[in-house]
Write a structure and sequence with these properties.
- It contains 13 helices and 18 strands.
- β6 and β7 form a beta hairpin.
- The longest helix is centred in the middle third of the chain and has 26 residues.
- It has a ten-stranded mixed β-sheet, with helices on both faces. A four-stranded antiparallel β-sheet has the order 15-16-17-18, covered by helices on one side.
- The chain is an alpha/beta fold and 515 residues long.
Length: 515
Amino acid sequence: MKKPIFVLVLSVFYNLVSAQKPNIVFIFSDDLSFRDLSAYGQTNYKTPNLDALVAHSTRFTQAYAAAPECAPSRGCMLTGLQVGRSPIRINSSARGFEELPATALTFPKMLQQNGYKTAVIGKWGLGYPNSIGDPRKQGFDYHFGYYDHYEAHSFFPLNLYRNGKKVDYPTNNAFNLEVLYDKERAPKSFDYEGMYDADGKLKYINENKGVYAVDEFDREALEYISANKNNPFFLFYTTNLPHGPQIVDDLRDLKDRKDMDLRSREWGAMVRRLDISVGKLIQKLKDEGVYENTMILFASDNGYAMHNPGKDSNGMPRWEDDKWLQNKGPFNGGKFTVREAGMRIPLFIRMPNQSQAKTMSQPVWLIDLFPTFADFIKASAPENIDGFSLLPLLTGQVSKIPTERPFYFFKNNEQSVRMGAWFGYREHPNKPLQLYLLEEDQTCERNLAAFYPDVVTKIEDYLKTAHEPHPWYWNPGETQEDFQRKQKLAIETKQKIEALRPNNMKLMPWEKSAK
């Protein structure tokens, strides 16, 4: 018996859909700590949508950011270049917030060249409207959100941007962003508890019809998936959750945890709100029939950042774990430092049609994503990048990743290297290298340099060539006076880059204190 014509048409349609190139959805969180998800050990609240995604993903148990702060981590990830030779190296150079140059080859450009529609929704942080660093000149067809790091400090912005044009939110004019920066330093300077009603809802939203940026990002992302379901697409959903200063639309299931500090409740609720966004994205992919044909990634841009650092007896930054959430993980340091806690991140990847969880202990980092995407879509990655494809690890094939390949990190004079099982760290190029065996000493408390001089020499030799000097960034071994001369030169040569500050703020709090 012959099949009806409409059955044959449907059969051809479904074959065409299944033959479509797979989509890629990359969910990138901002400052998420290692134990912020319940699947990673958080016990004060649940993250059910992310937990469900982990349960069908490959989880990398030794994953690293590309740098211990957002701009270089993002810039290195997009270009596949380690921070010692990347165009973006620290959050701010002597000129200001640097942009990705016109010559940068990013993996979104590579995806575009291979037929993908590309969008970035949320925090960009690598360029300005209609400039060389505008995401539409760096491989994205569509952009909605913030341009600047500072802008992304406000969850109730006066404006966001859609493809270079402002989208205004006049009902956010009454929002006082500046008071949030004193919450940790001077918690009694303002009635922070009074910002929430008895049900845990943020009063500002209801009283002023305030627009919460995360809601806008969710709406834009869901619309983008619907509009592009018939094309191979790459969606870079780069939320600013849970970056501080802490504030959230709803304290949710932490509203009654009065035993906890408000900042801890807010942080946890911000992670919960991130989980809700993830749930919406996953459901939309399913509703549009593209979930099984989509690679889904989740990661954070850097490590632990919940509390501002203090100083230890040697004057070095010290990051205390949060008393209630205990979300730092078993590592030393935090954001802005090249110790383990500054770079260790959650990272998991779900392949199309993956149904079971896998774990990988192979050390990997965000720089590996460029060659991974290229391998995934059967395209060529540039030969000079520093990452390796993770696809063999994701698909059960033999990996070509060298066992002792180096990961390089720096922040001003601090430098560190992950090399195989070893972690080398030095406070300054003139200081001796400290050596730790991470498998046995995750907190890096036992310096083994004296026992393994050959390993020390190997890492020190690598450090001699890992960092290419840059005319505007702080290079390891330079002084504050050296950097100030660069800043002066930037002003004299009219190369100073002005930041976009949030909510009509003239200066950020730390800029005021520096004057």
